[in-house]
């Protein structure tokens, strides 16, 4: 679907309503070119979860962890894998421990950099820059 950039909050909120905790953390794999809206989606998603801190790109920190006010998901983990050379770098950040908590939701930017260790249950979102005010968004929840 093609959305106005201003509709990102609505789309993120509607997407969140389709999710519920499973046996492990919920992974939201966000793909798209630079500037496509991956971080903007994560910011809107965090707002829908009730995160009160400002969400910024974790490019240099690689990972940021936020407490939510959501009734089912208590923690949001935002990971930017753009600088990763291998999935092993994600493992060193505690990937297995993060995945172990079903009340955690993970927004993972650049999932193709660590594709071999992303759970098959991941929810895939692809964002594409259409023009300054519009994005194409494809959500696959399998």
Structural class: alpha/beta
Strand/helix succession: EHEHEEHHEEE
- Please tally the β strands and state the result: 7
Termini Cα gap: 17 Å
Q: Note the total helix count.
A: 4
Share of helix, binned: 10-25%
Strand order of the largest sheet: 1-7-6-2-5-4-3
Quote the beta fraction: 25-35%
Q: Give the biggest sheet.
A: 7 strands, mixed
Overall morphology: globular
Radius of gyration: 14 Å
Mean pLDDT: 90
- Residue stretches low in confidence (pLDDT < 50, at least 5 long) are none
Any overview of this molecule?
With 142 residues, this protein is α/β, with parallel strands linked by helices. Helices cover 23% and strands 30% of the residues. The protein has helices at 8-16, 38-49, 87-92, 95-99; strands at 2-4, 26-31, 63-67, 75-80, 104-109, 123-131, 134-140. The chain has a 7-stranded mixed beta sheet with strand order 1-7-6-2-5-4-3, with helices on one face. Helix 1 crosses helix 2 (38-49). The longest helix has 12 residues, at 38-49. The two termini are 17 Å apart. The mean pLDDT is 90.
List keywords for this structure.
single chain, 142 residues, alpha/beta, seven-stranded mixed sheet, 4 helices, 23% helix, 30% strand, globular
Write the layout of secondary structure elements.
Elements: E1 2-4, H1 8-16, E2 26-31, H2 38-49, E3 63-67, E4 75-80, H3 87-92, H4 95-99, E5 104-109, E6 123-131, E7 134-140
């Amino acid at each position: 679907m093609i959305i106005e950039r201003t509709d990102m909050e609505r789309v993120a909120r509607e997407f969140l309503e389709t999710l519920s905790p499973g046996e492990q953390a919920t992974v939201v794999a966000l793909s798209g070119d630079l500037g496509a809206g991956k971080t903007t989606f994560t910011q809107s998603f965090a707002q829908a979860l009730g995160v009160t801190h400002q969400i910024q790109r974790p490019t240099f920190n690689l990972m940021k962890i936020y407490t939510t006010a959501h009734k089912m998901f208590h923690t949001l983990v935002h990971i930017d894998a753009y600088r990763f050379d291998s999935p092993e770098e994600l493992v060193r950040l505690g990937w297995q421990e993060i995945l172990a908590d079903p009340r955690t939701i993970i927004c993972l930017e650049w999932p193709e950099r660590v594709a071999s260790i992303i759970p098959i249950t991941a929810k895939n979102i692809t964002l594409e820059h259409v023009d300054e005010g519009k994005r194409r968004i494809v959500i696959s929840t399998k």
